[in-house]
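New to this. Help decode the following:
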Amino acid sequence: MVADATGAISAFAASLRAAAGEPSQPASASALTQHGHMWQFTGSATAHLDGLMGPIADSVCQYTWIMVLFAAEHIRTAEDRDTDPHAISVTPEGTSIIGSLVASELVAAAAAAVVDCPCAGGFNHITLSRAACDAARAMIMLALTQKDLALHGGPEGRRLACGLLRATRHVAVRRLQVALLDQLAAHAGMGAELRGREEEAQEQADGWAGSSGGWWFAREEAQREQLLGPKDGEEEPVAGSPTAGWLEDRHCNTVSATLWAWRTAEEVQLTGEAGVPAAPPPVLRARLAARAAEALCRLCRGQGLKGAYAPAPQWELAMAPVGILYSFVKTL
């Protein structure tokens, strides 16, 4: 079962490269490590695929979310808990799955599938909305797993946690995190990018994320002043339909996959071991947190895009775990 799962991770990531027009290579984790950008669809050879990229991104992110959950299922309570009552251990199968997730860069491929998906009409709006939600959930679970392994998994746990940190600090993941925060601001009627005095911060955010110009999806929602993603399970845009609850839940996921995940990574102090920054620079993170807090306040006051949090807020963020709200306080 586990051998099938780890093989599937590598094979699936290899299929992404094939869809992108890359030369065929053996579907092994070691072969995949050299491909930091497995989801670059450029040139006329892939132009005809534009309309399919939304559904493909949806499938990629669902698959990634399932594999991350599968990895977490192989973390057990340790038998020896004399020194740490919360000690955990990872089964050999779990170690193999985590290793394949890191080596194949599947999480980065899922993130890039979302932010690099071309604009190809309403169908991509629908599927990208779901894909972004699953990608955010995967990042949240990775942050939880990373924290547990680092704090309670002993030396081997810290080694695995460092690998997960490197996976979640991939440039494609950083781009998606900034894109999700841009979309939150767009939903609040603040525009998809920082403006005026905050233009410097936007440049910093783009530089940290390795991108420029922001995410077309968030820009389009801001320009049209309309929510373009669907409610879970629906196949039509949400214009005119209630959004309270499910949209709040997605915004909670955005905050958790960005501000909370960054704070969690810093708390476990893995940066030196992993060799990558755990979060954006403090000043940039504070600006992004301030904008996210303002966006959530505007949405709860009914000042967001038409239909956002309609007919009335259900205060999902207020019921979120304390750690998520704490990430706001510590950042600001």
The longest strand covers residues 75-77. Residues 20-48 have pLDDT under 50 and may be disordered.
